[in-house]
Hints:
By secondary structure, the protein is of the alpha/beta class. It is about 30% helix and about 25% strand. Helix 3 (about 80-85) packs parallel to helix 4 (about 105-110). It is globular, with a radius of gyration of 22 Å.
Amino acid sequence: MTAALALAERGLGAVWPNPAVGCVLVQGTRIVGRGWTQPGGRPHAESEALARAGKAAKGATAYVTLEPCAHHGKTGPCAEALVEAQISRLVAAMADPDPRVSGRGFAHLETAGIDVSVGLGGDEAAHLNAGFLKRIESGRPLVTLKLATSLDGRIATRSGESQWITGALSRDRSHLLRAQHDAILVGSGTVLADNPSLTCRLAGLGERSPVRVVMDGRLRLPLDHQMVASAGEIPTWVVATANAANAENTPNAKAYATSGVALIEVAPDGDGHPDASATLEALGARGITRLLIEGGAHISAAFLGARLVDRVACFRAPCMIGGDGAPAVESFALDRLENAPNFVRRALSELDGDVLESLDAIT
């Protein structure tokens, strides 16, 4: 199961709206087939493992990180394929909450006389596929807030200089985070200040760049921005309120469409900006399961204040910038500590002097 979980992780960020699944087929003590969900969500992990195993799958034990699917889509059900391959036993980490599956995969296998065991590695599988589970259960993606700060929580000096607070290894790990998420979200202020490309620039992972999402209530993203220019190559979505997205009100709206930028209309919040919760619902409706937020400070505050951040990846450099530097998170009107978003540390890593703290929200 540990091997199956490692295989499943390969699919993170590349298989949405499907879950990232791993499968290992074992005969005795020998692995005869391995598979993981392929880019775009097809083929599934079980199909890949069965294809590699061939006739050796007969009588094998299949270790899978999620209940095999039981519905017909672009391909046949994996539960049916496992039955046809005549495996003898299935060990699954967890059930699939998707209503199209939800126990039907296990039932199909048990009806065929295959022994089914569920629960081994369940916690690890649930953490790995938390984005898929979040979208199925609540209609929105899992949200990870990425911060890169000084020791005193600043992301830029008083003059606005921010490149680079953290070191090269931290930046590489940040790009790996991008590769493992379906979409990356920033605010229009960050885009105007930095003109970022928001791509994954790790060697060998260039094709794993996530969908780029800009919350831009007034459609300020310039038409000559590199994100607009490359929208035909890397999906780029702009989230705006309905009034701003109306081409009659905002000339940029029609120009975005011509450039390949997709406009997403959502309800405004109390200040007239795109509402954070409505934005997540809109992204979930489009299949996004894992969202990485990279700023800026106002966007971070909006999602933290609405209690919509599920995980935090905080990169801290061993330097101090001072109180006149730019804060990582702007005010979100917190009066009492008991109402503060709280997190529990899941991992701590040292990266050439920097520290990466990975945290999960306490719900």
